[in-house]
């Protein structure tokens, strides 16, 4: 799965400021921090950082879902993340 993502994002390397690339990089950071926290359960600063990154990704996903629903559906399918809840 991750090999496919690196291939699909390698074309986006030129546009690191795009919403899709930012969501992709936040997802990688989230996965890395999650595996770190499985080993270090009392690392509260990393937990705080994880919550901040989750919030940033959630806001970017909400923006993308409003602007371009097709790209949003494709991206969450590729990254295998759940769809955000709509309030």
From TrEMBL:
Tell me if Calcium is a UniProt keyword of this record.
no
Q: Which GO terms describe its molecular function?
A: structural constituent of ribosome
Q: Which NCBIfam families match?
A: S15_bact (TIGR00952)
> Iron: present as a keyword of the record?
no
Name of the molecule in the record: Small ribosomal subunit protein uS15c
Keyword list, A-Z: Chloroplast, Plastid, Ribonucleoprotein, Ribosomal protein
Predominantly, its location class is: plastid
**Xref: SMART domains:** Ribosomal_S15 (SM01387)
Q: Which ranges of the sequence are coiled-coil?
A: none
Known partners and oligomeric status: Part of the 30S ribosomal subunit.
Q: Which gene encodes it?
A: rps15
Q: Specify the domain of life of the species encoding this protein.
A: Eukaryota
Q: What are the GO BP annotations of this UniProt entry?
A: translation
Instruction: Give the family from UniProt.
Output: Belongs to the universal ribosomal protein uS15 family.
The UniProt entry, under InterPro entries, shows:
Ribosomal_uS15, Ribosomal_uS15_bac-type, uS15_NS1_RNA-bd_sf
